[in-house]
Specification:
It comes from Leucothrix pacifica. With 338 residues, this protein is of the alpha/beta class. It has 12 helices and 13 strands.
Length: 338
């Protein structure tokens, strides 16, 4: 039996990579055809209004969704399964599942929505006692090690980089209500990068993300300009570039700002030793984020570190293997009855 899957894409790489990761894992167990629909909000300020009526199963939710959400294509074929990640996809997932009377999976925490609005919610932290919540160590990701190595080879050739260097990656997210960063943090980070590069004879691959503020990118570009330890840098909001798979394929170590659960999960799924970075100005993360960070740290998949303490505390560590993820697709299929 073929399963036709509809992926709802909100345009955020970290979200859609998780959706593709789930679908790719399902392909190992079933015949799958996939279709992708891109969505965007014409007026983001009215998104809470759409959610309000959708959650109450009001027909106004359908009308507002049709008027205020732009779909990249008309969905003509009934999907057997809808997969999405990211809060911006919740309303569309719920409405399409109701319209086609089909099953839907949400990846992450559907904030503001009941778990009952979804056939299955896959998360890295328990969201309650509901039976339709599948908790995993890390989300399956779109890329695998074979794909990363291929991306790395292509990246080296196209950018004419030295294949004999030892590369480490630095991935930067952005501030949240519980993670704050200062100019001093970025200055200390660059100093630490230079000293680590000299001490361990490595070259850095650096990328910011969609959430990185423009002023942070500007400060970093100034600090990193003409820096001999930086082999390649991507300032996402200045010139977006899809380089994560290549970076992870090239790197033997990764440093990631702790605010980004998607980037933390991607690095762990890639099998790299990981250091998560935070400022001294750290609040108390919400439950799901805190559970993920603590679990990855406790099992040895990640070392948490304050940016100001890198030079004093960093020591390369061996990676502790993550739990086998091969059971996830069968667990999902069993939960959904597919």
């Amino acid at each position: 039996m073929n399963i036709h899957v509809l992926i709802i894409n909100d345009g955020r790489p970290g979200h859609v990579n998780q959706s593709f990761g789930i679908v790719e894992s399902l392909k190992k167990e079933r015949s799958i055809t996939e279709e992708v629909v891109d969505i965007s909000y014409r007026l983001k300020v009215l998104r809470p209004l759409i959610n309000f009526f959708v959650k109450r199963n009001s027909y106004l939710g359908n009308i507002l969704n049709l008027c205020l959400v732009k779909y990249s294509k008309k969905i003509d074929v009934r999907p057997d399964l809808i997969v999405s990640s990211g809060g911006y996809t919740c309303a569309s997932s719920v409405l399409l599942a109701r319209t086609f009377q089909t099953k839907n999976i949400f990846l992450g925490t559907p904030k503001g929505y009941s778990l009952a609005d979804f056939s299955l919610v896959v998360s890295t932290a328990s969201l309650g006692a509901e039976k339709n919540n599948l908790v995993v160590d890390v989300m399956p990701q779109r890329f695998d090690k074979v794909g990363m190595r291929a991306a790395a080879r292509e990246f080296l050739t196209e950018r004419r980089l030295n294949p004999n260097y030892v590369y480490w990656s630095l991935l930067i997210g952005g501030p949240t209500h519980y993670y704050k960063y200062t100019k001093k943090d970025w200055e200390e980070l660059v100093v630490a990068m230079n000293e680590l590069a000299d001490k361990y004879s490595v070259k850095w691959l650096v990328s910011t993300s969609r959430r990185t503020p423009a002023k942070v990118e500007e400060a970093l570009s100034q600090l990193l300009r003409s820096n001999p330890s930086i082999t390649y840098s991507v300032f996402y909001n200045q010139k977006p570039e899809k380089c994560l798979s290549a970076f992870l394929g090239l790197s033997s170590y990764a440093f990631v700002t702790e605010d980004s659960t998607s980037m933390l999960s991607e690095v762990v799924a890639a099998g790299l030793p990981l250091v998560s970075l935070h400022s001294e100005m750290i609040g108390e993360p919400d439950g799901g984020h805190l559970q993920l960070v603590q679990r990855l740290s406790n099992v040895g998949s990640m070392k948490r570190m304050c940016i100001g303490d890198i030079l004093q505390n960093f020591q390369p560590v061996k990676l502790k293997a993550n739990k086998d993820q091969s059971l996830i697709p069968n667990m999902i299929l069993n939960e959904l009855g597919l």
